[in-house]
Amino acid sequence: MVPxxxxxxxxxxxxxxxxxxxxxxxxxxxxxxxxxxxxxxxVMASTAHYYEAMCLDVVYKPSFSVDNYPLVxxxxxxxxxxxxxxxxxxxxxxxxxxxxxLAVEGRTGIDTLITKDGAVPTLADIKGKKIGVKGAITPSVxxxxxxxxxxxxxxxxxxxxxxxxxTVHIEVPDIVGFPGYKSNEPNQLTxxxxxxxxxxxxxxxxxxxxxxxYTNQQFLTEHPSAAQDxxxxxxxxxxxxxxxxxxxxxxxVDLINSLGNTLHLSADGELARWNVESKLVADSATVDAPLxxxxxxxxxxxxxxxxxxxxxxxxxxxxxxxxxxSVLAGIYDxxxxxxxxx
Length: 342
Prior knowledge:
By secondary structure, the chain is an alpha/beta fold. The chain folds into 2 domains: 13-108 and 208-337, D-Maltodextrin-Binding Protein, domain 2; 111-204, Periplasmic binding protein-like II (D-Maltodextrin-Binding Protein, domain 2, 3-Layer(aba) Sandwich), CATH 3.40.190. It has helices at 13-20, 40-47, 50-53, 65-73, 85-95, 139-147, 166-169, 185-191, 217-222, 224-243, 245-258, 267-283, 296-307, 326-329, and strands at 24-28, 57-61, 79-82, 99-106, 111-116, 130-133, 157-160, 177-181, 196-199, 210-216, 332-333, 336-337. The longest helix has 20 residues, at 224-243. The protein is globular. The model has no long low-confidence stretch (mean pLDDT 95). One of its GO terms (molecular function) is metal ion binding. Residues 41-246 form the SsuA/THI5-like domain. One of its GO terms (biological process) is thiamine biosynthetic process. Homodimer.
């Protein structure tokens, strides 16, 4: 039996040996090393040597969310960052994979509908119009419009946009707006002095999530203490990132630049991103629902809402095996992270 961690007591030697037995633990990010939930916390934890304090050998690499699911499913990678819980659930069904979400850092959707200034006074004004999309309309926005009786392909149409520049997209003549992310496109438009109106699905009681940290059932079963202590160190990294957003963003940008910055992310952009996301993450944390703890009722509401708009082939998925709240519940004591004397 692997001993538990006790606050301010030495890290148990037997637990250290069990964690070392897990070997190299690989984490892949979901969007380079952007200053974003479920990425910035791993960067901060590694920089502060928190994983080493847990006797863990962690390698972290930049990647993209959708590329990582098959690697985690095959246990070639042990942890990754997901865009939302529903995204992970959708890929779990598509890959017949044993994904397990261990942390849900953002307890609201991160997407929003960005509309041209004066073009959409109310959501009802979307009727008969076109929305630009990067691949497909985001689930929270689609659910928000459906709640207003607006159905894609019937009440409005979507058209594909080229590239990722919102200052270009806002000028596309045939559309009235496009989905974006609260911590990204609005910041860019504001910085450029471009007026717009955003509709936040959360304001319309649409559930959502962002900043998911997940593993696979094989690793969790074979190395439960290593999995829990990876999350323990990561949640301490998250607390550090919330306590000093500027340092967190700077740390991410320094790492991005050291690797060539292929996505051309900027220091100002990453600070703006984390300023938005950090507030969303921090504002939802309580003593009973500390940082990262998955809230099963909220996640059930999320997949139920998204199944209603056609995700998961329109069938509400059973999420019992797709999330394990006990892992994070075991690292907190009345909302305080249990950290040993190291």
